[in-house]
Amino acid sequence: MSKVLIIGAGGVGQVVVHKCAQVPEVFSEIHLASRTKSKCDAIAKQVKDRWKRDVQTHALDADNVQETVALIRKVKPDLLLNVALPYQDLALMEACLETGVDYLDTANYEPKDVAKFEYKWQWAYQERFQQAGIMALLGSGFDPGVTNVFTAYAAKHHFDEIRELDILDANAGQHGQHFATNFNPEINIREVTAKGRFWENGEWKETEPLSVKQSYDFPEGIGPMNIYLMYHEELESLARHFPTLKRARFWMTFSDNYLKHLEVLQNVGMTRIDPVDYKGCKVIPLEFLKALLPDPGSLGPLTKGRTCIGNIVKGTKDGKEREYYIYNICDHQQAYAEVGSQAISYTTGVPAMIGAMMMLTKKWSKPGVWNMEQFDPDPFMDALNKHGLPWTEVFLKG
Ligand code: NDP
Q1: What is the spatial distance between Cα 196 and Cα 198, in angstroms, rounded to a whole number?
Q2: Where residue 46 sits, what CATH number does that domain have?
Q3: Where is the Saccharopine dehydrogenase-like C-terminal domain (predicted)?
Q4: Measured distance CA(3)–CA(114) in Å, rounded
Q5: Same domain, yes or no, for 56 and 204?
Q6: pTM of the model as a whole
Q7: Complete DSSP assignment for 312-342
Q8: Cβ of 287 less than 6 Å from ligand 1
Q9: Does ipTM top 0.95?
Q10: Does 255 lie in the same domain as 197?
Q11: Is 108 touching ligand 1 by the criterion CB < 6 Å?
Q12: Residue of the nearest CA to atom 8 in ligand 1?
């Protein structure tokens, strides 16, 4: 029996609230706070109608540490679950330190003015969290999140040594829009327009954005799709925590149509994140573009098809070479029928709820700041099967 304070009433926040509501034995009291209270109220109403659970709602500017501290003192949660934007991570961690409350998020901190995906700012909180006797769980979404747990599970059960890791993120869904992103457009476009980066032989190697591609034949009838090498934040923690890895890469699918639009937007400067003077106002082109694009939430009823996200791990077991693929397939329409959101928000929100459940039931409990692969993967893997993200494993070799 515990009380959770969820911050952020966007696409992922909606799924998290629905999923917590389905587990009343753990989440006995649910609070939702976000910048726009009406969005919290709309989610609370859906959850009341569908799951007959009450959700208390609050307006909050999560950039303001003292405002969050005041809300935490009022609500007295056992855990703060951050599904606002990566910009709020540090302010929310500060508020947790000041009030002695555990913390969880799904994306690493990013400064607003430069697209940098690094754990260094959050890892720097390690000592302060340990001294305060509280825990922070970083990156409890799908990727990062489940992909970290998949790696830990492979290493624990199927390999003596893991040497190569490829994380493959495929969205084979269609929403019928000319151009739209499946989660927050600003965060998504910052990520895909950044340089590619992968870990090889003890160092990071950089590639031009989306310049390395290949085709991969995805399982269960999804079929061949183009995958593009990108940098993704879990590579940093996985390369650190699995030092036997000689190579670690991340790949994502993009349709030709998505890339065509992105190229034009980039060429005309619409993806810039530095302020531009327009008639005496400072405008950040990417923020303005976000205002023009479809709200990812509106894609829920339109999106059909499936996602397939998983890891291919190569290494050795009992002196023999082994190649292993573990993945989840999630259906956009099934996700929408259950929680009113498409699969991208669903695959992030479910692991956020499960990470919170691991912490609140003390299956994962240790003061300090941790990544997902630093805990026993088994209870998390069981929970994925029970709460809507079942996984499949295939031995490709050995
Ligand atoms: P959305 O933009 O849909 O939602 C973000 C929410 O946070 C909005 O409700 C927004 O409020 C609120 N918010 C923003 N700033 C503040 C603030 N200062 N104070 C209070 N609330 C604020 O994003 P998503 O739901 O798509 O994504 C949520 C998080 O999940 C992001 O950090 C994203 O990077 C992460 N993510 C992680 C993935 C993973 O697999 N690990 C995959 C996909 C996303 P308002 O409605 O008023 O704008």
Answers
A1: 7
A2: 3.40.50.720
A3: 141-389
A4: 35
A5: no
A6: 0.96
A7: EEEEEETTEEEEEEEEEEEEHHHHHHHHSS-
A8: no
A9: yes
A10: yes
A11: no
A12: 10
